[in-house]
Amino acid sequence: MANHIIINNKIKSFKKIIKVSSDKSISIRSILIASQAVGISKISNLLESEDVLNSLKTIEKLGINYKKKNGSYYIYGFGLNGFDIKKNTTINAGNSGTLARLILGLLVKSKLKVKLIGDKSLSKRDFSRVITPLKLFGVNIKSKNNFLPIEIIGSDYLRPIKYDERIGSAQVKSCVILSALNTPGTTIINSKKSRDHTELMLKFLKYPIQVQKKISSERILIEGLKQFKAFEYEVPGDISSAAFFIVLTLLSKNSQITIQNININQSRIGIIRILNRMGANIKLKNKKIYNGEAIADIFVKSKLNLKSVDCPAKLNSSAIDEFLIIFLVASKAKGISKFKDLGEMNKKESKRLDLGIKFLKLIGIKVERFQNDIKIYGNPNLKLSKEFEIKNFLKDHRIFFLSCIAALTLGGKWKINDKQSANTSFPNFLKLLKIVGAKIN
Ligand code: S3P
């Protein structure tokens, strides 16, 4: 089957109510945390994407059974460190940084050596950010220059740590929190703010974790060695997937969309804050709290006359996976948009800051870069008619989605490669685009 798609037409006006894929961060956490619970957990509405399926395969390799019944996943946990690890176990995190970093936290007490590998993109990502705290706990960990493959053997003599997490990485913070579960005593993390799904899920399970919020950081205290019971959890929709439909609607004519049941955790909705600053007027309706997480329907209308934004760096972490699509909005906005301190974007599935700039230049947008700050010169009259081919973007799913939305809102004749990358996070993306009215071959 061809691994590319062709888009030759802009999308026509639409008015739709849709649901997007379930949240990837919460799906992965629900599996990993259920693997440590006592008893059978039931997870509904789990995202069935490659990153999440790799999480299921990973816990299975570590001796935790699961089965799917009537659309829900049942995970058979044996409590903390209840893994049954065989000799020469290798686990493959595929494309997922979240799975790779978080699973290391659950292996701090493993009796046998476990080898962690990943795909080409993950093998280029730096693991020093988790290797450093893991070593402080007393774990034995080997890698070549902090890249995959990594070999880890746990320890019976773990010690609680006090860790300053300065990157603002939820993967690092969560790796430390999960390591703390199996460590006697109280681990303390001073963390720059980042998504807090791990903390919220553990709180929902009544695990002894405390979060003391400060202005731009948090102090998290986790007591180790407390068992918790199996649970039921229904995963909400993913704002990072909704983001592409939000922008599709904003940049199309006379259109509107309601995206139902999306996780609107404050640490995730930077995109809504940024787009509203640009004049978007995105609304959150039917707000509710489910198991500690905030959920709502997102309502968006087309918007002509968007204006540029001077984006404060304090919003970066809450929009970290959405900047590519935010850049597209900045391209159509009036004025010069400014984004600062986006170095973390280059540490994702691809070097997204570099590639995002390459993409903007390809569609004729002027961009200036100074270190990790960029200025995007918006052009409200931007209309494309040329031919474009998107390839060699390291199979990054979010670059694939961005390209589709650009093609459907700006025009031009597009050949977009690496269609399969959508399976990483949003397998029904193209199907949903067609439901909304896109013509895609
Ligand atoms: C994630 C955290 C973010 C994000 C990634 C998912 C998570 O990475 O980019 O897609 O689920 O914890 P960092 O924590 O490294 O910033």
Question: What features would you describe in this structure?
Answer:
The chain is α/β, with parallel strands linked by helices and 441 residues long. It has 2 domains: 4-22 and 236-436, UDP-n-acetylglucosamine1-carboxyvinyl-transferase, Chain (Alpha-beta prism); 24-223, Alpha-beta prism (UDP-n-acetylglucosamine1-carboxyvinyl-transferase, Chain), CATH 3.65.10. The protein is built from 12 helices and 23 strands. The strands form 6 sheets. It has a 4-stranded mixed beta sheet. A 4-stranded mixed beta sheet has the order 4-5-3-14, with helices on one face. It has a 4-stranded mixed beta sheet with strand order 6-7-9-8. Strand 18, helix 9 (323-332) and strand 19 form a beta-alpha-beta unit. Helix 3 packs parallel to helix 5 (170-181). The protein is globular and about 65 Å long. The structure holds shikimate-3-phosphate. Shikimate-3-phosphate binds at residues 25, 98, 169-171, 174, 194-195, 320-321, 344, 348. Shikimate-3-phosphate is lined by residues 25, 98, 169-171, 174, 194-195, 320-321, 344, 348.
Question: Any descriptors?
Answer:
441 residues; alpha/beta; UDP-n-acetylglucosamine1-carboxyvinyl-transferase, Chain; 2 domains; 4-stranded mixed beta sheet; 12 helices; 23 strands; 29% helix; binds shikimate-3-phosphate
